[in-house]
Amino acid sequence: MNEKTKTCRVCQQGLELTYKKPEVLKQFMNRRGKILARRISKLCAKHQRMLATEIDRARKLALLPYTELP
Question: Which of 29, 42, 58, 69 is 20 to 30 A removed from 49 (C-alpha atoms)?
Answer without folding.
Answer: 69
